[in-house]
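S2.1 Query sequence (Sulfotransferase)
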Amino acid sequence: MIFLVILQGAAVVLFCGWYVQLSPCGSAPPNGKVHVLLLSSWRSGSSFVGQVFSQHPSVFYLMEPGWHVWTKLQKPGARVLRMAVRDLFRSVFQCDFSVMDAYLPENHQVSSLFMWSHSRALCSPPACPLTPRGQFSNQTQCFKTCSTTGLSEVEEACSTYSHVVLKEVRFFELESLFPLLQDPTLDIRIIHLVRDPRAVVRSKEESAKAFMSDNAIVLEQRSIPAPEVQYQVMKEICQSHVRINERAVLKPPPFLKGRYKMVRYEDVARNPLEEITAMYEFVGLEATSQLEEWIYRVTHGKGKGSKKEAFEITSRNAADVSQAWRTVLPHSKVKRIQEVCQEAMALLGYRTVHSEKEQKKLDIDLLMPQEPYQFSWLPDETERPSNG
Ligand SMILES: *[C@@H]1O[C@H](CO)[C@@H](O)[C@H](O)[C@H]1NC(C)=O
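Output C-alpha cells follow.
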C-alpha cells in the first residue's frame, strides 16, 4: 500500500515535470501580449532606455508605477511594500487601472499618474489626439494638451498595444515577481539595467533632495547618520543587483528561462544601436529606421553639463557622461563606494581603481568585456514573431 502511494506520488511528479516541459513557461497568453519589466535603479539610465521603448509604436509604456505605492505608504519600508508593488504591476500589465484608486486622489485623471507625459502612448490616440501613432511625442506639448484624459481612456489605450512596458526602480529581488512569471495570462520579460555605482552616486548628487524619501524606504526607515546614507543606499542597491542576477542566472526556476536579460548602461552608451536592437529583439519588437535615427540623435546630443531636472531624459553625449564621475568624485568617496559595492562590481564587470591617478587617467578602461557578465536567454524560436 505504502509502496503504491509512493509510486503514485512519483508518477504525479514525473507527469508534472513532463507537463511543464511540454507547455513551457513561454506559452503565450491568449491575447499575445508581451509584458516587459524594465527593472533598474535610480540614476541608472532607465529613463533613457524607457524612452527607447515608450517611443516605439507598438508599446504602451509607464514609468515607475511603484512610485504611487511608496509615496502613499511611506512608513513600512521596501520589504513590506514589495508585494503591494508586485500586485499593482500585475493589474497594470493587464491594463486594469482600477488598482490605482487606492493610491490616487479623488477625481483623478491621467495627470495623476507619475511622469505620465513621458509615455508616448498617453499622448497618442485613443488616449489623446495629439501625437499620431508612429510619431515621436513631445513631453512638453503632451503635458499641456493631454492632461485631462481619464483613466478609462488610459485602459482603452493600453489594450490596443502588443507590448506593455513598465519601468521600475523599486524591486530589490526577483522572488516577489515569481507569481507574475507563472501567471498564464502574462508573458513577462525582465530587462535588468545596471550601471557603474560610482557613476550612479555622482548622478544622484546632482539632485540629492529628490531621493530623500526613497532613500529612507530603501533603508527601512533606520536612522543612519546623514553622510553615511548614500553609501548604505548604494550598498542595498548593489546587493540587489547581485541577488537578482544570481537568482536569474545560477539555477533559475524553469519559468524564468528566456525571460531575463541583464544590460549594462555603459554598453548602451557605447553601442546604443546594437544594444537597443538586442533589447527590442529580446522582447519581440522591431526597430524602425525612424527609431534608429531618433536613437542616434538623442545619444549624440550636445549640451554637456547643463542643469537637468532629476527625472528628465538627457540628450548629452551618452558615452562622455558615463565617465564623468572619474574627474568629479573625490577618490576617498570612490574608495568607499568600491568597498560597499565590491561584489556587485566584480560580478557586473566594473574594474575598481586603486589610486587617484588611476581614477583620473581616462584612457584606462574600467569596463570589462561584457561576454561573461551579460547573461540572458533568448526566447524560444517557436515563440510568436515580433509585432514591429
Ligand atoms: C517640444 O515642444 C516645445 C513647445 O512647443 C518646444 O519648445 C520644444 O523644442 C519641443 N521639443 C522637441 C524635442 O522637439
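The CA atoms of residues 250 and 291 lie 35 Å apart. The pocket of 2-acetamido-2-deoxy-beta-D-glucopyranose is lined by residues 138, 140-141 (CB under 6 Å).
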